[in-house]
Amino acid sequence: MIIPVSVPGVFTAAILSFILAWNDFAFAVSFLSSTGNFTAPLAITTFGQSGFQVYYNLIDAAVVIISIPVALLVLLAQRRIVAGLTAGSFR
Question: DSSP characters for 23-82?
């Protein structure tokens, strides 16, 4: 009885944790020094820069490409996210 009630909340927590970890910037910039280990947002800040010039078109394209997996995850799990957020409410 407890498992079916807790499943939407567990899925919602897992999806939101994934999104927060995906977008983590401050933690990554504090502890990572090798460019091979950079997270996606941290890699975007170093991408498209050359000397005194910043290529905003490359950075914009990278942002769109990096956000596609998160958008697909949210679209595929939208029903579970809403069910988890409203699991404890009254109807």
Answer: T--HHHHHH---GGG--HHHHHHHTTEETTEE-HHHHHHHHHHHHHHHHHHHHHTHHHHH
Number of neighbouring beta carbons within 10 Å of residue 57: 9
Quick: pLDDT tens for 34-73. Answer: 888 888 888 888 887 788 888 889 889 998 998 898 889 8
Question: Which residue bears the tokens 């897992």?
Answer: 14
The total number of residues shown for the chain amounts to 91
Helix 56-76 with 2-22: angle, nearest 10 deg: 180
Q: Is 88 helix (H, G, I), strand (E, B) or coil?
A: coil
Give the list of residues 6+ apart from residue 43 with CB closer than 8 angstroms, or none: 35, 62
